[in-house]
């Protein structure tokens, strides 16, 4: 059975004394301890009267307890749904009402805020993960409940997680997935990214994102180690000093780490892989990574909350040989590039990426209309991303279908322009959006953040693009910005940027 109950049991049997997870304060759990504590928590949740199929919502900053609760809810047959801790009360209220949880689990700092929200009648239990909160059961008390999980159905197809999309456009949607799909994704992506049983992975992305469970599980399905921290440059530096082999971050994480001095005097020889995701990365960033970690492979992946999330992978020399590509499909993923009618386009032409695999989502929570719109017949997921395939079979992103700019009847893909501008030495980050134009219907503008101490003019940057791309692709304007709005996972928040600059995509 591909369930977390069986996977943890097998890992405890095979790797019992190996360290599985490490917390922010350096606290450690072996595989045997992880299996025992998740059994205990599963019994505690059952002792609260929770029954298979009921839902648990989580709200806390990054911590190992997240993974313990994630696995324990699976063992108890419950559904786990984390909340974004950056949301405001009214935003959370809407998501809680959608999920209709039977139990809330939260850090004490969030308990008072949750107590002030209108709660659905489904909420019967509240558990304080850290600290003390009036009316909330302490986490430690749940771990002392006697019992067994053997009576709980061990169903690999049962829904286990509801993860809300952190996309850059539109309203958040609850993506539902089974244990079986999560475990297949972990195994296949570990193979594609070359994550091994000897990996010491450092994870500091927000756990409420799809990566909160899926990324550490790449190491945990095979006896590796995962350190879970909230991003802090000094804490990352200590993890590297402790022998970390694999880092996962977006460009902003690496830039902050290098600028902080946290690596001064630290032996970085253990780092063999640096995953770079999230947004446009510059050549200067890649040079910085290889300079600070001379023995590392550059790693890139592509996917979405709906698709697995791991759909494409690229690592090492392949990364260098196919700079800017999304990569090749992760094993088990079948992909196509299609026109709006779902018909395959010729090689080299741009179309929507379609994905079919055993890891794509089951459905959107309570939205059969959106679920139907997300799939073609025979299980093909519409990603909404525009790609092309090069002569070597590597997939390249052209942009989001919703972001494509049509100027004077010509299609303009923001990603193509962003990639060119990212090569300019003065540019730290760039985003291209479309705004209304009375003559051409739309026009492309580039919003740019420069490196500290660097200078560039609008005319200079427009000429830089014009020398490399067709004239109609050259941004009509370049606007400079001190700081970009960001999504919870560190991507440039194009929806917020669009509203500020009058984009045609601001709705």
From TrEMBL:
Residues 9-365 form the AMP-dependent synthetase/ligase domain. SUPFAM superfamilies: Acetyl-CoA synthetase-like. PROSITE patterns: AMP_BINDING. Keywords: Ligase. Residues 416-491 form the AMP-binding enzyme C-terminal domain. The keyword Phosphoprotein does not apply. It holds the Pfam family AMP-binding_C. Gene3D superfamilies: 3.30.300.30, N-terminal domain of ligase-like (3.40.50.12780). Transmembrane segments: none annotated. GO terms for molecular function: acid-thiol ligase activity. The keyword Ligase applies. Belongs to the ATP-dependent AMP-binding enzyme family. This is Acyl--CoA ligase. It comes from Solirubrobacter ginsenosidimutans.
């Amino acid at each position: 059975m591909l369930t977390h109950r069986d996977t943890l049991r097998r890992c405890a049997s095979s790797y019992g004394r190996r360290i599985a997870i490490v917390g922010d304060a350096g606290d450690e759990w072996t595989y045997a301890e992880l299996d025992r504590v998740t059994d205990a928590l599963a019994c505690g949740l059952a002792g609260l009267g929770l029954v298979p199929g009921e839902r648990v919502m989580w709200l806390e900053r990054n911590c190992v307890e997240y993974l313990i609760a994630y696995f324990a809810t699976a063992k108890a047959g419950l559904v786990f749904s984390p909340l974004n801790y950056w949301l405001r009360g009214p935003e959370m209220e809407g998501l809680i009402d959608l999920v209709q949880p039977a139990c809330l689990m939260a850090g004490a700092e969030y308990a008072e805020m949750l107590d002030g929200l209108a709660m659905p009648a489904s909420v019967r239990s509240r558990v304080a993960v850290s600290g003390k909160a009036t009316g909330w059961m302490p986490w430690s008390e749940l771990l002392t409940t006697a019992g067994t999980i053997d009576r709980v159905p061990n169903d690999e197809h049962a829904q286990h997680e509801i993860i809300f999309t952190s996309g850059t456009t539109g309203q958040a949607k609850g993506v539902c997935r089974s244990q079986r799909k999560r475990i297949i994704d972990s195994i296949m992506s570990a193979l594609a990214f070359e994550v091994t049983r000897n990996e010491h992975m450092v994870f500091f992305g927000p756990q409420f994102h799809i990566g909160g469970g899926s990324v550490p599980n790449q190491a945990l399905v095979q006896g590796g180690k995962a350190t879970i921290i909230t991003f802090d440059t000094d804490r990352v530096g200590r993890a590297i000093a402790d022998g970390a082999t694999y880092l996962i971050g977006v460009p902003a994480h690496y830039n902050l780490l290098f600028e902080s001095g946290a690596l001064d005097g630290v032996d970085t020889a253990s780092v063999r892989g640096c995953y770079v995701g999230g947004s446009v990365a510059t050549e200067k960033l890649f040079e910085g990574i290889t300079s600070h970690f001379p023995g590392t492979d550059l790693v890139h992946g592509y996917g979405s909350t709906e698709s697995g999330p791991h759909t494409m992978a690229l690592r090492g020399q392949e990364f260098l040989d196919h700079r800017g590509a999304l990569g090749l499909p992760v094993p088990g993923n079948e992909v196509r590039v299609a026109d709006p009618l779902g018909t395959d386009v010729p090689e080299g032409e741009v179309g929507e990426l379609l994905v079919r695999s055993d890891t794509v989502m089951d459905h959107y929570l309570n939205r059969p209309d959106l679920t139907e719109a997300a799939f073609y017949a025979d299980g093909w997921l519409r990603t909404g991303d525009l790609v092309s395939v090069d002569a070597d079979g590597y997939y390249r992103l052209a942009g989001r279908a919703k972001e494509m700019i049509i100027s004077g009847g010509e299609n303009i893909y923001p990603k193509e322009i962003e990639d060119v501008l990212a090569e300019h030495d003065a540019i730290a980050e760039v985003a291209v959006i479309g705004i209304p134009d009375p003559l051409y219907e739309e026009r492309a503008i580039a919003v740019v953040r420069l490196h500290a101490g660097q200078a560039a003019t609008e005319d200079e940057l427009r000429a830089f693009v014009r020398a490399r791309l067709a004239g109609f692709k050259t941004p009509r304007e370049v606007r400079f910005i001190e700081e970009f709005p960001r999504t919870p996972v560190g991507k440039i928040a194009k929806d917020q940027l669009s509203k500020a600059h009058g984009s045609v995509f601001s709705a």
